[in-house]
């Protein structure tokens, strides 16, 4: 029986191709989703652990269950506490680097550039940056400068520069080191120090001097990186225990993978891979659409093979053999198409990674899950979708199959079907409402545990699936009714439209089956389009909130001419230059004082021009201060008793506040203006002239536009450093590079979703073609009769085209409405934790979707119409 099945498959391979394409497309998307998740996690891991260099382990603070006193003790650790020499001598330890860094200004002649200096290592590959020329510092008074910094200072390997600490150390003010020899140049390909535009690698004595201590062992650090030799796939227990025995109290040894996993979890707010889950939902829906295509394909095959099946029954084939034959055919088809789908998805992701499409620097990262899961899923879906046709094959008796049969099913739809469908819709709506309520109850999902958030997400998906299944189940009731109204208008245009209108009313089951294919496809397209648009706008808003100001320059002697030079830089769209002072915000973050920077501005419009975050109706006057909602360093919400903010502005030698300022606090959700402060507030500039505040420095906030200008972040950094090179202490920092990396990742995800839109249209096209093919087979006698009484081939073609168009309009509009609601639901549940969710209705995209659906339906009617008109009436009547 198996050999007969394979021969039948070869004979009808053209009919199997559409179902195979649907399976291949669905599994290709699932495979590419896995691979995209792998690539994004790999990219995130490299970025989050870029400071490791070649290290595979790190010693870090084990902050769990530590009291404030214990935390202070841990964060007061010095390099000497870690016994680096002894650790380096342990068998299996290939490299050690203590992470010490501080802000400095590098000078050569009249030019000064700010930067971040980090500690060196004995092994070059232990550094978080690459040495592109020369060598890493090994002896005293040696540095390796970033390539761009060296160009701005016009120095090279062998030249000397001067270093000045950006912060006062001890009672001697800012430390300075002259005649520092440049021994190398660095690059930062993984963005470990993108916030500072790169990193300076310095010898141990320079790090000690810049921190105001006499010896490198006295410098402060809370992180030590280790390169531990692998014994197979893991590090030997002897090496691990030897290192742990030398660690100071409250510190632990963690692998690079452990640290990156924890960092990724903290970024997403829970233990769920949001992006992969979000995309996988659409992959499952794509396979659901493919299942309908597969089911229709096997229905067509069984209808065409009814005489073959009858002959097999007459020569002794049992019902079970016929049933098994259809399922075996499904397994073979599912396996072959799924393997091709995995290959297609892998090639697609590989091409995107090696080309410039993946702007986030993603690498192709294959895993067994990307192959096994799609193949198994494809086979299971194919088998499940073919079971109905397999049962139909067993129902064919020799006598019934060898005589003319009217295939049209005129059975009335049962009341049970309607009740089940309505219950599905009702339960699905209730589950969707429950998931929305849970998201709101858990503060947008931020307060939910990993398992709890996963459950909320699954409930939302299950609710949407039940609503959709209920709509499909009850489509036999509501879809023909809607089409009847539209068809009544269309029938006024001629006989072809009249026949199409009559066919729609004649067989509601066939119309529901045909319309459901396109309904699913269009719903999927609209869901993706709406979800993608909402995700894009929501995540852009979240990025604007988290990375509020692109670039920040601070310094005592930034002149107006320097400000003008910065404003004239290509890529700089807006600037804000204002006086500022460091203060302490009292008891707004729990009970701990918070470091803050107050910036004096003329009005709120100045802030809005450079701030990416939405400040809403916030205002600034002489009695108020604009403050962020959250502490940028701890993430805790800033809460002000009685709505007032208390600032300490001067202190005596004992550290007690001798001068303070109290203002009414207006809050808005903006963050990351400066990494040095827990909060940056904006006050009326009159406070700096009436004696309330003394300007200790000036800040220059810059808003950049890399898209329209076409310049890179590095170009803007370099141009700003050049514009401020005459300043002796100006520092240039900013999260723009981090924000752009995240934005590029979102763009890459959106590109994948756009690809899925094309996938959904293809699947819908294949599905409608198959269901119309079945419709033609069902109406063989009807078509022959119409031809016999004088209907031309053109009129018969047009009747099928009009029927397809009517189906596409009703199914398409219904799909757009359902898809929009599903897209809103998915975006709300998934992205609430990242910020305020945007609910767009994509008029343009949905209009295109409807147009594409109509064209797809018309194209899908071409081949069935050709089949209907190619058979002579007499032959068709005889066959029927």
What does this 3D model show about the protein?
This protein is of the alpha+beta class and 880 residues long. Among the domains are: 8-50 and 287-403, no CATH class; 100-219, no CATH class; 548-734, no CATH class. It is 54% helix and 17% strand. It has 28 helices and 22 strands. The protein has a six-stranded mixed beta barrel. It has a six-stranded mixed β-barrel with strand order 15-16-20-17-19-18. Strand 15 and strand 16 form a beta hairpin. The longest helix has 43 residues, at 736-778. The two termini are 28 Å apart. Mean pLDDT is 79; it is low at 268-272 and 404-411.
What share of residues are in beta strands? 15-25%
Residues in helices, as a percent range: 40-55%
Q: Biggest sheet, open or closed, and with what strands and sense? A: 6 strands, mixed, barrel
Shape: elongated
Query: CA-to-CA gap between the ends?
Result: 28 Å
Give the tally of β-strands.
22
Low-pLDDT runs of 5+ residues are 268-272, 404-411
**What do the pLDDT scores average to?**
79
Highlighted features:
transmembrane transporter activity, FtsX-like permease family protein, ABC3_permease_C, cell membrane, transmembrane helix, 6-stranded mixed barrel
């Amino acid at each position: 029986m198996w050999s007969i099945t394979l021969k039948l498959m070869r004979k009808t391979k053209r009919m199997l191709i559409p179902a195979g394409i649907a399976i291949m497309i669905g599994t290709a998307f699932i495979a590419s989703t896995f691979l995209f998740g792998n690539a994004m996690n790999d990219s995130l891991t490299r970025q989050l652990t870029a400071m490791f260099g070649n290290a595979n382990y790190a010693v870090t603070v084990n902050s769990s269950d530590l009291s404030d006193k214990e935390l202070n003790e841990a964060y007061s650790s010095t390099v000497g506490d870690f016994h680096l020499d002894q650790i380096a001598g342990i068998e299996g330890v290939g490299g050690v680097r203590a992470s010490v860094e501080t802000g400095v200004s590098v000078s050569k002649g009249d030019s000064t550039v700010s930067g971040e200096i980090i500690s060196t290592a004995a092994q070059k590959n232990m550094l978080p940056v690459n040495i592109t020329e020369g060598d890493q510092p090994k002896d005293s008074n040696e540095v390796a400068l970033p390539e761009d910094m060296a160009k701005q200072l016009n120095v090279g390997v062998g030249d000397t520069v001067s270093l000045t600490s950006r912060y006062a150390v001890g009672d001697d003010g800012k430390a300075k080191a002259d005649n520092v020899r440049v021994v190398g140049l660095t690059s930062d390909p993984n963005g470990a120090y993108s916030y500072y535009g790169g990193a300076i690698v310095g010898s141990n004595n320079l790090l000690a001097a810049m921190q105001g201590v006499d010896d490198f062992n006295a410098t402060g650090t809370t992180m030590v990186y280790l390169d531990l030799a692998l014994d197979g796939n893991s590090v030997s227990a002897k090496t691990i225990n030897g290192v742990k025995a030398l660690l100071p109290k409250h510190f632990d040894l963690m692998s690079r993978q452990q640290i990156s996993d924890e960092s990724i979890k903290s970024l997403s707010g829970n233990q769920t891979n949001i992006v992969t889950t979000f995309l996988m939902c659409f992959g499952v829906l794509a396979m659901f659409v493919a299942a309908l295509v597969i089911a229709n394909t096997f229905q067509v095959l069984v209808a065409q093979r009814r005489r073959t099946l009858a002959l097999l029954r007459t020569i002794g084939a049992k019902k079970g053999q016929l049933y098994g034959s259809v399922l075996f055919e499904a397994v073979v088809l599912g396996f072959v198409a799924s393997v091709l789908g995995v290959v297609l998805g892998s090639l697609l992701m590989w091409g995107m990674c090696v080309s410039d499409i993946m702007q986030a620097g993603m690498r192709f990262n294959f895993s067994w899950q990307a192959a096994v899961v799609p193949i198994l899923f494809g086979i299971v879906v194919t088998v499940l979708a073919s079971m109905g046709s397999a049962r139909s094959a067993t129902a064919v008796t020799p006598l019934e199959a060898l005589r003319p049969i009217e295939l049209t099913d005129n059975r009335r739809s049962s009341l049970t079907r309607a009740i089940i469908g309505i219950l599905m819709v009702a339960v699905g709506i209730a589950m969707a409402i429950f998931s929305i309520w849970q998201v709101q109850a858990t503060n947008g999902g931020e307060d939910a545990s990993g398992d709890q958030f996963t459950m909320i997400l699954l409930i939302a998906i299950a609710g949407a699936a039940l609503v959709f299944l209920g709509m499909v189940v009850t489509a036999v009731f509501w879809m023909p009714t809607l089409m009847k109204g539209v068809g009544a208008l269309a029938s006024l245009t001629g006989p072809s439209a009249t026949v199409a209108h009559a066919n729609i009313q004649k067989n509601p089951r066939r119309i529901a089956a045909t319309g459901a294919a396109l309904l699913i496809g269009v719903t999927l397209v609209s869901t993706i389009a709406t979800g993608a648009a909402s995700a894009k706008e929501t995540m852009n808003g979240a990025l604007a909130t988290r990375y509020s100001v692109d670039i920040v320059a601070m310094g005592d002697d930034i002149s107006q001419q320097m400000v003008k030079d910065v404003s004239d830089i290509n890529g700089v769209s807006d600037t804000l230059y204002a006086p500022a002072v460091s203060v302490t915000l009292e008891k707004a973050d729990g009970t701990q004082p918070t470091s803050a920077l107050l910036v004096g501005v003329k009005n709120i419009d100045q802030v809005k021009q450079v701030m990416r975050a939405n400040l809403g109706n916030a205002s600034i006057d002489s009695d108020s201060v604009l403050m962020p909602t959250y502490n940028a360093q701890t993430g805790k919400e800033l809460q002000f008793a009685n709505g007032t903010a208390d600032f300490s502005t001067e202190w005596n030698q004992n550290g007690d506040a001798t001068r303070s300022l109290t203002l009414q606090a207006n809050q808005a959700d903006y963050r990351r203006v400066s990494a040095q402060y827990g909060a940056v507030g904006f006050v009326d500039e009159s406070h700096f002239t009436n004696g309330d505040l003394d300007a200790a420095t000036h800040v220059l906030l810059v808003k950049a536009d890399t898209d329209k200008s076409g310049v890179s972040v590095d170009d803007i950094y370099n141009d700003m450093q050049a514009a401020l090179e005459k300043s002796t202490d100006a520092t240039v920092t900013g999260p723009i590079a981090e924000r752009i990396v995240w934005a590029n990742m979102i763009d890459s995800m959106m590109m994948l979703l756009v690809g899925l839109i094309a996938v959904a249209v293809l699947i819908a096209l294949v599905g409608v073609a198959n269901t119309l093919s079945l419709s033609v087979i069902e109406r063989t006698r009807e078509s022959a009769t119409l031809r016999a009484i004088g209907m031309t081939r053109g009129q018969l073609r047009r009747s099928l085209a009009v029927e397809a168009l009517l189906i596409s309009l009703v199914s398409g509009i219904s799909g757009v409405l359902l898809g929009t609601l599903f897209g809103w639901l998915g975006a709300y549940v998934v992205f609430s934790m990242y910020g305020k969710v945007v609910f767009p209705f994509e008029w343009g995209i949905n209009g295109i979707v409807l147009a594409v659906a109509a064209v797809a339906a018309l194209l899908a009617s071409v081949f069935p119409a050709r089949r209907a008109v190619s058979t002579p009436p007499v032959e068709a009547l005889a066959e029927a």
